[in-house]
Design a protein that fits this description.
The protein is built from 21 helices and 13 strands. By secondary structure, the protein is an alpha/beta fold. The radius of gyration is 28 Å and the shape is globular. Bound molecules: arginine. InterPro entries: aa-tRNA-synth_I_CS (IPR001412), Arg-tRNA-ligase (IPR001278), Arg-tRNA-synth_N (IPR005148), Arg-tRNA-synth_N_sf (IPR036695), ArgRS_core (IPR035684), DALR_anticod-bd (IPR008909), Rossmann-like_a/b/a_fold (IPR014729), tRNAsynth_Ia_anticodon-bd (IPR009080). Its EC number is 6.1.1.19.
Length: about 575
């Protein structure tokens, strides 16, 4: 259910009945303080200004027409003309009763199903995945899960960097290793090392660079031997990424891969189309598009190179082909691409050119979703102690080791095996939540201590809150909790606050997918868990002097809370457990 939409509809109807213009919007927002109710309609002020009339008088007229007594126990006009809405406890109870036991009912399946093509993770296969790909992978995966939960048709695209000139040197090196009887799996066990070796040979060894260039030509020309070698390289490298996805609990699979190589045959036709339409022009031997929309302050257009002077294609050419494929073949309503913010100009250029060329119709949204950098404690880009790039797989292993120490310290009644399983979920959850909870557009400082704390907005806190609710529910042994929906009543203020929060789940999900902002869900879950703790203190459940009626209602509310926490964490890709 969408609380905000329900209130918007009610106020809107009253605005129309009061004779306000039909484009006037109620602007429903959460009230910042309890004395101003639960929600506020702030839209009257703007309308009054336009109509040059007294906003308070106008608000009174709207309230006089408002039919909301079933939902609200009180409506007040405050300040210059805000309408404050205090929700009705029995209505809240009814809403909780009707959605009970099936979290799916919390969210109405969308009435407009969009085909959403989501490009995320997209590592370069020549090297190991590094922390830069962490953000793309987990933010993208959370948004994908949220879109799917709403009922959208999601097509994942892992736009892996599996093509390009660097493969010449890698294949030449691999060829030599295989010739000296090494098997590909061992040779490529550490991609970082392998890349380094190849690079040293490329820079220092006589004749190697020329052979590397020959390999590029052969590869692009479709030479069978060379393709076979390339395929081996790619397969092993993909396996490395898959290990990371598995560890990270990310939904990407092999069938979601559509790497750069998949567009190889489209590149020449794309350039031809751009030149035929006079969008790309020849400039110093290269093909470029001059983009006036992105001109600098001196009026010089932004230059977007789409083909190099020797005829070679570029990252840009591939992205133009990808844009066309996604809009036309996959029939996307929305195309979302998750990369770091440094690629913002690139995608801006791709979009402008692709639209000019008619590759993406007006009805398709092209959304580059940029994110900031992960920084070390020193405030500089996150690196190893010796200044190297941090391998993602190693970072995740460290998270699990650190979580294990934390769990072992607190563990009562947990076998070694259980501790390992919990450490896995807590360690990975901590890394994910710490990242997802920041507004993605800003840089953030990676800090083991804060992310692995049981206090504050962290995964361990939420996972622990979940086990708390779970243990309360399991202690109420002779009751079948999932049949208690009709027992729900809302009395105490703490219950009321918790109930409203629970019912806001869909509003939050809507804002998460509208702008690809999972941090809103992170904040919501933290607030929800905190409200539960407050509720539990004020409204005891298992104590002897609690009436059966109260106990059943409170158990049902707890059950609701557990479902929402679990569902929310699932969408973030964070696992829960029953005890820790
Ligand atoms: N492989 C690129 C990188 O590691 C990211 C690709 C993103 N997607 C795209 N369509 N360009 O930076």
């Amino acid at each position: 259910m969408k609380l905000r939409d329900i209130l918007t509809d009610k106020i809107k109807a009253a605005m129309l009945a009061a004779g306000l213009p039909s484009d006037a919007e109620p602007h429903i927002a959460l009230s910042k303080q309890a004395q101003f109710g639960d929600y506020q309609a702030n839209g009257i002020l703007g309308v009054a200004k336009k109509l040059k009339t007294n906003p308070r008088g106008l608000a009174e007229k709207v309230v006089a027409e408002l039919e909301i007594s079933d939902i609200a126990e009180k409506v007040e006009i405050a300040g210059p003309g805000f309408i404050n809405i205090f929700l009705n406890k029995s209505w809240l109870a009814q809403q909780l009763q009707s959605g009970f036991s099936d979290p799916r009912k919390l969210v109405t399946t969308t009435d407009k199903i969009d085909t959403c093509v989501v490009d995320y993770s997209s590592p370069n296969l020549a090297k190991e995945m590094h922390v830069g790909h962490l953000r793309s992978t987990i933010i993208g995966d959370a948004v994908v899960r949220a879109l799917e939960f709403q009922g959208h048709n999601v097509i994942r695209q892992n736009h892996m960097g599996d093509w390009g000139t660097q493969f010449g040197m890698l294949l030449a090196h691999l060829n030599d290793k295989l010739a000296s009887e090494e098997v590909a799996e061992t040779a490529l066990a550490d991609l970082e090392d392998f890349y380094r070796q190849a690079k040293v040979r490329f820079d220092d060894e006589e004749g190697f660079a020329d052979r590397a260039r020959e390999y590029v030509v052969k590869l692009q020309g479709g030479d069978a031997e060379c393709l076979k070698l390339w395929q081996q390289f790619i397969d092993i490298s993909i396996t490395h990424s898959e290990d990371v996805y598995k560890k990270l609990n990310v939904t990407l699979t092999r069938k979601d891969i559509r790497g750069e190589s998949a567009y190889n045959d489209d590149l020449a036709p794309v350039i031809k189309e751009l030149t035929d339409k006079n969008i790309a022009v020849e400039d110093q031997g290269a093909k470029v598009v001059f983009i006036n929309e992105l001109a600098n302050k001196d009026g010089d257009p932004s230059v977007f190179i789409v083909q190099k002077s020797g005829g070679g294609f570029l990252y840009s050419t591939t992205d133009l082909s990808a844009a066309r494929y996604r809009a036309q073949t996959l029939d996307a309503d929305r195309i979302l691409i998750f990369t770091d913010a440094r690629q913002a100009l690139h995608f801006n250029q791709v979009e402008i050119v692709a639209r000019k060329a008619g590759f993406i119709p007006e009805s398709t949204q092209y959304e580059h979703c940029p994110f900031g950098m992960m920084m070390g404690q020193d405030g500089k880009p996150f690196k190893t102690r010796t200044g190297g790039t941090v391998k993602l797989a190693e970072l995740l292993d460290e998270a699990i080791v650190r979580a294990k120490a934390l769990i072992a310290e607190r563990a009562i009644d947990l076998t070694e095996e259980e501790q390992d399983e919990i450490a896995q979920k807590v360690g990975i959850g901590a890394v994910k939540y710490a990242d997802l909870s920041k507004n993605r557009t800003s840089d953030y400082i990676f800090n083991w201590k804060t992310m692995l704390s049981f206090e504050g907005a962290t995964a361990p806190y939420l996972q622990y809150a979940y086990t708390r609710v779970h243990s309360i529910l399991s202690k109420a042994n002779n009751v079948q909790i999932d049949t208690l929906g009709s027992a729900i009543k809302i009395e105490a203020d703490q219950e009321r606050a918790l109930a409203i929060k629970l019912l806001q789940f869909e509003d939050i999900l809507t804002s998460v997918t509208a702008d690809a902002h999972p941090h809103l869900l992170c904040a919501y879950l933290y607030e929800l868990a905190s409200l539960f703790m407050t509720f539990y203190e004020a409204c005891p459940i298992l104590k002897d002097d609690v009436s059966e009626q109260d106990r059943n209602s409170r158990l049902a509310i707890s059950y609701w809370t557990a479902s929402v926490i679990k569902l929310g964490l699932d969408i973030l890709g964070i696992e829960t457990m029953n005890k820790m």
